[in-house]
Amino acid sequence: MNFWLTLYRAASVAFAILAVVAIVCAFLPKFRQNQERQRRINALEAENPLKEEAVKNLRKQQEMFATDVKYVEKVAREELGKAKAGETVYRVGARKTNDHQPRRK
User: Fold this and answer.
1) Which helix or strand (DSSP H or E) is residue 89 part of?
2) Is the dihedral of CA 13, 18, 24, 27 positive or negative?
3) Does residue 94 have a pLDDT over 80?
4) Are the beta carbons of 71 and 65 closer than 8 angstroms?
């Protein structure tokens, strides 16, 4: 009778171990997926203040475009290369050219 009791206990322990392994195998992919999502959330939360600052700057720039004529003129001159009618613009510095394209006469 001792043999059957030992076999019963060994089978119970094996079943318990098998149940634990099955549970771990069932939930391990979800656990890893949750960890990856948490890493992504942390990265996005770290990026969020930078984006908020960019939006704040763009709103400020938009307000300046709507209200400040001198700012609009400054941006047109410096960033877009525009000039007033009758004005001569002199540029100092390297000129960008495409050497691989032939010049047209």
Assistant:
1) none
2) negative
3) no
4) yes
At 15, list the tokens.
Answer: 């079943």
Amino acid at 3: F
Name the pTM for this structure: 0.50
User: How many angstroms separate the Cα of 18 from the Cα of each of 8, 23, 25, 28, 55?
Assistant: 15, 9, 10, 15, 55
Phi-psi region of 89 (alpha: psi -120 to 50; beta: other; left: phi over 0): beta
Q: Collect all residues with Cβ–Cβ distance below 8 Å to 65 and sequence separation of at least 6.
A: 71, 72, 75
Half-sphere exposure of 94 (CA within 13 A, CB side): 3
**Alpha helices in the chain, H assignment, sequence order:** 2-67, 69-78
pLDDT in tens, 36-57: 999 999 999 999 999 999 999 9
Tokens (6 digits) for 68: 């400040």
Q: Which tokens in the block code for residue 93?
A: 């510095």
The domains of the chain are located at 2-78
Give the number of other Cβ atoms within 10 Å of residue 75's Cβ: 15
